[in-house]
């Protein structure tokens, strides 16, 4: 299963050559934040600079440190600290913060941007035009990824609701209709077991046969 993580790393590298906006969607606890931690680790081992924008408060640098120790067996402790310096971190509490950061990303020297739980922050904002703002923001992220030729990766939450007493639960992605027109790559996540994330790509169509099972160490379990 570690080879599947390598396959994911290879795919992300291919996407970044042209620049891509990538979404990983899944239910709460499906491994979204864990996957972002691993992507940060893979990036920094290749000396790539990653900006981690945290909307959930679940960022744990010690998890990335543990992963680097396991992945780079012959690397000295001082080198791991240097690797960690390739990761910049910003905590956000409201959508307006990310809108401001987006303008700064245009000027930053980064190879990848990962954003955890931005969309769910927007869900709890009462502004009447928030749906339009999300659509325009995602459009701007897609354009920025193409112009800078980097990956911008964000997570989205799938939630369930029951419309009527007789119907079963209906699952849907937050702001799906506002995202679908701009996202270049879409992956779906769910936990097969406590330590295994199942990752399927459903867009673009040419990737829908790719099914990855990514092992997560206990320290990385969400």
Strand count, sense and barrel status of the largest sheet are:
9 strands, mixed
- CATH class reads Alpha Beta
CATH architectural category:
3-Layer(aba) Sandwich
Helix content class: 40-55%
Shape: globular
In total, the number of strands is 9
- Helical stretch tally: 8
Descriptive labels:
single chain; 222 residues; alpha/beta; Rossmann fold; nine-stranded mixed sheet; 8 helices; 9 strands; 41% helix; 27% strand; globular
Write the topology of this structure.
Layout: H1 2-18, E1 20-26, H2 32-45, E2 50-54, H3 61-71, H4 77-84, E3 87-91, H5 95-105, E4 112-116, H6 118-123, H7 130-148, E5 151-161, E6 170-173, H8 176-179, E7 185-193, E8 196-203, E9 211-215
């Amino acid at each position: 299963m570690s080879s599947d993580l390598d396959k994911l790393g290879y795919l992300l590298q291919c996407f970044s050559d042209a620049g891509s906006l990538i979404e990983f969607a899944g239910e709460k606890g499906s491994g979204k934040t864990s996957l972002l931690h691993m992507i940060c680790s893979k990036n920094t081992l290749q000396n790539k600079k990653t900006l981690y924008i945290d909307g959930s408060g679940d960022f744990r640098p010690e998890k990335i440190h543990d992963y680097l120790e396991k992945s780079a067996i012959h690397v000295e402790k001082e080198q791991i600290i240097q690797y960690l310096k390739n990761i910049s971190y910003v905590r956000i509490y409201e959508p307006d913060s990310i809108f401001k950061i987006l303008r700064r990303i245009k000027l930053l020297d980064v190879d990848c941007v990962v954003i955890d739980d931005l969309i769910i922050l927007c869900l709890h904002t009462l502004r009447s035009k928030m749906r339009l703002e999300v659509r325009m923001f995602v459009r701007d992220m897609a354009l920025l990824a193409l112009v800078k030729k980097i990956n911008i990766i964000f997570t989205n939450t799938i939630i369930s609701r029951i419309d009527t007493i007789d119907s079963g639960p209906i699952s849907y992605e937050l702001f799906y209709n506002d995202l679908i027109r701009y996202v270049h790559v879409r992956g779906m996540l769910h936990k097969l077991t406590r330590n295994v994330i199942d990752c399927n790509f459903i867009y673009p169509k040419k990737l829908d046969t790719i099914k990855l099972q990514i092992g997560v160490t206990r320290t990385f379990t969400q």
